[in-house]
Design brief:
This protein is an all-alpha fold. Helices cover 78% and strands 0% of the residues.
């Protein structure tokens, strides 16, 4: 009976979001209340669980996500992303242009959320395609692949950070394993797959969606641009490396402990980049801060959705659903990582949003994660890979690709949907391979 209630609650969530078009934040809260009552919890206990789940989830990830949004806004508006794209374009040339676009999306995708990165980099895709007289999808799909993989797999993006918090996974290990899986996924689903798309798309380039770009003399230097984008990763890696090299120095160990915390690494990066990409380039501090306010507004609804998903997760935990799910897992011959991937992929197909699918899966899979002998870092990546599977007409990213590249629905399914599914399947293969090796 407990499992039936769980299934009905998930179906209700899907129906509210996809059929009734209810805001995801409100849908999560409604389902959390319904689930708690159906599981026989006293109403006051349900409210307490919702408050606890929302607070605990946001308390652990909100600062990192907000700082990431600020950094992404600065990287975008300063022209750093534009500089990286042009540098990669010049470095690789026409022969390897698809690999240049993939590498650009990979670097820019670390601090930028997918939709922001898409809007920012589309003009560069059009420019490169026009310069080399190449098909749009052949040039653009590798970059979109990299942006999508970074958004779904790796911190500090909302869904991975939420999953890391829920499952108490190690940030550094998750990022390291994620890179190992992300690189082949990007190469295969990006440059290699895009070679099959040369005949798909408009016969002539459409420039209606091109946005204004900064002139070359106003762009920051390439070293500044790349370092500002990658600095959180550099700081965290250095924090784990320094104690190995200078283990006896108490000051080094204290500094390493500080910068090993993602919040400190992100905050330090925002402070440094505020100077290197902002003040140093002649921008006023007030204007930079206005940009940060806009970044926070852009991400506010994502935070609310993550918090409400955490509330639903807490109701599942407090209702003792864990015992029923643990029993189901024990009786199932399916590998827990495969089960996590399949559950998330189904949610992705139903809900559309990769972020919503990922955080919903976290709530459903939280109990079994602590009853099964699974690597939590790989569990985060399995859910991340599943959250990218089968993007179709209920996903805003599907329509972004269709409209900006002038595709039909059939062509978008053939290109974008297949690419997302490839990434998800390759990600699953990588997770299972790492689980076997380690």
């Amino acid at each position: 009976m407990t499992i039936l209630v769980l299934i009905l609650c998930i179906l209700l969530l899907v129906a509210l979001i996809t059929w009734a078009k209810v805001n995801a934040f409100l849908a999560f809260l409604v389902v959390a209340l319904v689930a708690g009552c159906c599981f026989g919890m006293p109403f006051t206990t349900v409210i307490a669980s919702i408050n606890k789940g929302l607070g605990d989830t946001l308390g652990s990830v909100a600062i990192i996500i907000l700082l990431g949004a600020m950094l992404g806004k600065l990287v975008a508006e300063s022209g750093a992303a534009q500089r990286i794209a042009h540098f990669m374009h010049d470095l690789f040339g026409a022969r390897y242009v698809s690999y240049a676009m993939a590498l650009t999306g990979f670097i820019v995708g670390i601090p930028l959320y997918y939709n922001v990165g898409f809007i920012l980099l589309v003009p560069i895709i059009f420019s490169v395609a026009s310069s080399y007289r190449l098909p749009l999808l052949y040039v653009g799909m590798p970059m979109l692949t990299a942006l999508s993989v970074m958004h779904g797999f790796l911190p500090p993006h909302p869904s991975p950070m939420t999953l890391i918090s829920v499952f108490h996974a190690d940030v550094v290990k998750t990022f390291g394993y994620g890179l190992i899986i992300a690189i082949p996924a990007i190469i295969i689903a990006g440059p290699i797959f895009s070679a099959t798309l040369k005949k798909i798309g408009p016969h002539s380039l459409q420039f209606a969606h091109r946005s204004a770009t900064l002139p070359a003399h106003q762009l920051p230097g390439i070293a500044n641009s790349i370092l500002s984008s990658l600095l959180p990763v550099v700081l965290i890696c250095m924090a784990h490396l320094l104690p190995v090299l200078f283990g006896q120095n108490p000051l080094i160990r204290t500094l390493a402990a500080w910068f090993a915390e993602p919040i400190i690494a992100m905050l330090a990066t925002v402070i440094i980049s505020t100077y290197t990409l902002g003040l140093r380039k002649g921008k006023s501090l007030a204007k930079i801060m206005d940009g940060y306010v806009c970044a926070v507004k852009d991400i506010a609804m994502v935070l609310l959705i993550i918090g409400s998903a955490g509330a639903l997760k807490q109701v599942f935990v407090d209702s003792h659903l864990s015992n029923a799910l643990a029993g189901m897992l024990v009786s199932s011959s399916m590998h827990p990582l495969l089960l996590a991937w399949l559950a998330t992929a189904c949610l992705r197909l139903c809900l559309g949003s990769a972020t919503v699918a990922g955080v919903t899966a976290a709530g459903v899979l939280f109990p079994i994660a602590h009853h099964a002998n699974v690597n939590t870092s790989l569990l985060v990546l399995a859910i991340g890979a599943g959250s990218l599977f089968g993007s179709h007409v209920n996903d805003t990213a599907f329509w972004l690709c269709k409209e900006y590249f002038g595709l039909s629905v059939k062509e978008t399914l053939r290109s974008w949907t297949v690419m997302e599914s490839l990434v998800a399947v390759i990600g699953l293969a990588g997770v299972l391979s790492l689980d076997f090796l380690i």
